[in-house]
Amino acid sequence: MSTTSQFTERDVSEFFDQTTQTYLSFWDSEGVLHTGYFAGPDDTDYPAAADRTSDLLATEAGIDASATVLDVGCGCGNFLLRLAERTGCRGEGVDLSIERVRFALGKLTERGDGLPVAFRHGSATALPYDDGGFSHVVSQDALFLVPDKARSHAEMYRVLAPGGTLAVTDFLQPVAEIGEAARRHVYDRVRWSSGYSLDGYREALTAAGFEVTVARSLDDHIRQTYRVLGETARQRAAATDDEAARQWILGFAASCDEIQAAIDRGEFGWGMFVARKPA
Ligand SMILES: C[S@@+](CC[C@H](N)C(=O)[O-])C[C@H]1O[C@@H](n2cnc3c(N)ncnc32)[C@H](O)[C@@H]1O
């Protein structure tokens, strides 16, 4: 058994900058990069499952037309654009990867329909926003990547208005000691330093001042996500001419098998959390 490796924010941003185009080629061409919430064990429709996660989180957060939303680790911007379209809310997205923010800004320009949404390059540990400016802070599968998690919690608390809501999905590290295969294929693969168990997550948010109302494990859905995406990756690799990209995608497909095994061994998980900043 071993502990996880240590990565810096720079390691993380380089990884997401360098892999943006590759992920677009086989994971989701619109740039969605989060765990799906599947309709049942035989469901293999990843795009629908990914949208379902977004809609579930929006419902849990209680986002409506009056909301001002910050999406931390917004990636290519899809969650915020969907939220604004479907609820009429306003919002900002911030991400550490310049390439992903560029993609999000491109999508916004292409649409040209004046949605009240903006995207910015920045870190969860130094949010470029005033105190108390948002009614909701949301995040999908991004906060696990932050090496200094206490700092990101303090920042999200700061930018929320009193009575505001934090709603996140995130990767979980259920146990302190993990095996070599999990370290290589789950943690090091995406430059993930370390994470919380479900209880540890709740305790960390509470320590930051939040009142946690939902802390739910959703391991079955992340297992299914990597089962479905592993199969998709193998099909895409067979149709990819660029040898370097093909090898990377095949490596990802092999990791998908190891990721499912790590979930079965209790070394990796996924959870949803909703918390309130006291009024
Ligand atoms: C797995 S992707 C999820 C992207 C997006 N939330 C989605 O659902 O498609 C993780 C994202 O977190 C971003 N990220 C990692 N560390 C961050 C940090 N310290 N501050 C802001 N974003 C960060 C990465 O650049 C990447 O875009």
From TrEMBL:
- Could you list this entry's UniProt keywords, alphabetically sorted: Methyltransferase, Transferase
Report which reactions are catalysed by this protein. Answer: phosphoethanolamine + S-adenosyl-L-methionine = N-methylethanolamine phosphate + S-adenosyl-L-homocysteine + H(+)
Q: Which GO terms describe its biological process?
A: methylation
Which species expresses this protein natively? Micromonospora rifamycinica
Q: Does this UniProt record's set of keywords contain Transmembrane helix?
A: no
Q: What positions belong to coiled-coil segments?
A: none
Give, as in the UniProt entry, the pathway in which the protein acts: Phospholipid metabolism; Lipid metabolism
Pfam families according to UniProt? Methyltransf_25
This protein's name: Methyltransferase domain-containing protein
Name the domain of life: Bacteria
